[in-house]
Amino acid sequence: MGFSTKAIHAAIEPDPVTGSIMTPIHLTSTYVQEELGKHKGYEYARVSNPTRTVLERQIAALEGGKEGLAFASGMAAISTIFSLLKSGDHVIASHDVYGGTYRLGKLILGNFQLEFDFVDTSDIDNLRNAIKPSTKMVFIETPTNPTMTITDLTAVGKICKSKKLISIVDNTFATPYLQTPLDYGIDIVVHSATKYLNGHSDMLGGLIVLNDPALIEQLRFLQKSIGGIMSPFEAWMCLRGMKTLAIRMDRHNANAMKVAHFLHNHRRVKKVNFPGLMSHPEHRLARKQMRGYGGMISFDLGSFDKAKELLKRVRLCALAESLGGVETLISHPVTMTHASVPPDQRKKIGVTDGLVRISVGIEDVEDIILDLNQALKGV
Ligand SMILES: *Cc1c(COP(=O)(O)O)cnc(C)c1O
After folding, report:
1. Among 49, 202, 278, 376, which has the highest number of CB atoms less than 10 A from its own CB?
2. Of 52, 89, 98, 346, which one is the catalytic site residue?
3. Could you report the per-residue pLDDT of 176-219, keeping only the tens digit for each?
4. Mean pLDDT throughout 218-246?
């Protein structure tokens, strides 16, 4: 089965009771049991819900994994993964992970004697050198947010296998349409389904996919114990959105490529970060491990004032956090998504005051470029 067919059919079957072609939204907290110890596989809705089950099987099919787990948000999924750790454990993460992941690791889990190191994993030697006896987990984003660096998934998979570390890839930016980390021996894939998977900026969700039976059992236990689960309505929304993932991503890819070239050739733009450009330092690696470059671009205008001016002048591009929806969103990482990352750390990872991030939508690309062009004139 091809990707688009899977996205529509993999786990979705007509409702056996009514024939309803769409998965019903099961709004129930509990399930009636026939007799003691005899039930239909569902006992209490925090543990499992039939609508959520379908979504969990769908995302597992798309990522090529055995099991999927759905959470209330990307951060709820990531917190649950970190709950696999014990005090004293050490985690290595990409140095420009999502701001919320940085905040969770550094400002919250530090209080529980979990140690986080953030290193530039686009140079795989940095990962090797950061491993110590207490290291238990490696958490990678590729492409990263917002500087779009790429990390070698084959190398991460190999290193983590040989050192017995749990490897995790946050696949939010690429989606399984463009990249399937489990194919590279990565243990766990995590998503903010809020972004491309749902794709319509109208829900929040987190998804995990994995293969290892022992880890599946542990994460299921943590999911029901911590309780940060996805609601049946959100699961239904996400199922609906995921059916069009392939055609949306094709359009995001094509539009972003054109916008990236436009920005690259514009004299007021100092630097463009987009893995599809030949000028991107890991362009060849991106071409090898991705089936397209996605819809995310960041670019540097040189100063905070210039970024502010551009963001004031855009009309079609909406000034907002988040990404991955059908509409083009534009944002300023330093004051928005990465505000909780300290200035010296921001400098180290290339999140400069003049950096602007754009989530290229699926509008007519001419309109996006016209809007950016008129806004850049005033910068
Ligand atoms: C948004 C995002 C998250 C967090 O997801 P939420 O659904 O907002 O909790 C994690 N990782 C990446 C890469 C994201 O873009």
Report:
1. 49
2. 98
3. 999 999 999 999 999 999 999 999 999 999 999 999 999 999 99
4. 98
Residue 69, SS3? strand
Which residue CA neighbors atom 4 of ligand 1 most closely?
74
- Encode pLDDT of 19-29 as tens digits: 999 999 999 99
E strand or H helix that includes residue 80: helix 74-82
Please name the residue that has the structure tokens 């696949």.
Answer: 171
| Catalytic residue list contains 364 | no
Residues with CB under 6 A from ligand 1: 73-75, 98, 100-101, 141, 145, 170, 172-173, 192, 194-195, 204, 206
DSSP SS3 for 145: coil
Reduce the DSSP state of residue 259 to 3 states and report it. Answer: helix
Q: Identify the DSSP state of 295.
A: S
Q: What is the pLDDT of residues 21-76, one digit of tens each?
A: 999 999 999 999 999 999 999 999 999 999 999 999 999 999 999 999 999 999 99
Question: For residues 177 and 294, what is the distance between their CA atoms, to the nearest angstrom?
Answer: 10
Residue 295: exposure state from Cβ atoms within 10 A (0-12, 13-18, ≥19): buried
* DSSP SS3 for 68: strand
Instruction: Please tell me what DSSP assigns to residue 270.
Output: -
Our answer to whether residue 152 is catalytic in this structure is: no
Instruction: Estimate the crossing angle of helix 245-264 against helix 365-377, to 10 degrees.
Output: 30
Residue 353 has pLDDT above 90, yes or no: yes
Task: Determine whether 96 is an active site residue.
Answer: no
What structural domains and CATH numbers belong to the chain?
3-242 (3.40.640.10), 245-377 (3.90.1150.10)
Q: Which residues, other chains included, contact 45 with Cβ-Cβ below 8 Å and sequence gap of 6+?
A: 26, 28, 29, 30, 232
In contact, 150 and 143? CB cutoff 8 Å: yes
Question: Is there a catalytic annotation at residue 196?
Answer: no
**Distance of alpha carbon 63 from alpha carbon 70, whole angstroms:** 14
Tokens (6 digits) for 3: 């990707």
